[in-house]
Amino acid sequence: MLMKTMKAAVFEGEWRLTVKEMPVPAITRDDEILIEVEACSICGTEVHITAVPPAYPATPNTILGHEFVGYVREKGAVVDQLQVGDRVVVNPNNYCGKCYYCRKNLPNQCEHMEALGIDYNGAFAKYCVVRDKVAYPIREDVDAAVAACAEPLSCVLNGLEKVHVRPGDSAVVIGAGPIGLMIAMLLNRMGVHKLLILETAEPRAKFAKRLSLGTVMNPLKENALEAVQAATGIGADIVFDVTGSQMATSVELVRKGGTVVLFGVNKKALKEIAQCEITTKEIEVKGTWLANATFPRAVQVLENREIDLSLLVTGIYSLEEIHKGLELLREGEAVKVIIRP
Ligand SMILES: [Zn+2]
Ligand SMILES: [Zn+2]
Hints:
26% of the residues lie in helices and 28% in strands.
């Protein structure tokens, strides 16, 4: 028998996040499953939602948390691909499957997207209800903290879809947070040989250096353009900006005919850019947003241990300690923080 209430981290509006008793959610549709949350990772989005002033919108009185793994405890009548007891990871962006974009194979651009843990109750809680179509089975031997990273990893894989990476390519990753480091790990795996990682926050730069994924430098202290030119002779084949604000730098660092991939959202970044740089250098600039059919591969990457995401986990906390985790992320002193409700 389930309890009637559970502890949950609820966004109360105006950056206030409170851990309090909430009703245990119930299945209300035949295609839903009730998940007992095993682990839920704190995303940069939650750092932005709870920032003063807020840097990302969320609906008040919503339980936050969208990067998680858990066990199916109940299922609706028409759920046929999953069984009670299955371990699953979840795509928190439930798409309708029927709008123009869904029918153009762009469910990540769905016109009726439901964002779990932002606009609908999420997984910083003991239980969470989702549609069966957004849940993906994952083996039990994948560590819970690692499995909770399936969502950001699936976004990273979607970003890598946007560019043709060849062994021997050179690349720059701007931003050494979890997304940047996951990209760097995969690029290493794919045979990229000259990799520069730019990070301005000292604790994160230090952390990235210890992972030995490439040359880590602080662009505020060293000249990134000179370093990229020295390493490649012509500029990087590919530049990934995961900060959401370094498009101009990316265009500067990429070689002629190279590709820039833009991850991450910073609505304040409205930098002017010399369009002729893109024209005359024949640069491809690509945006990437959320995950698109990349969850199954994210699960494969984790189950096959293609990269070791446990290296990125800097802390595991209880739900009551969630503010501590958020603070460490805000200060740039943590990379991946996991909550075990
Ligand atoms: Zn996230
Ligand atoms: Zn849709």
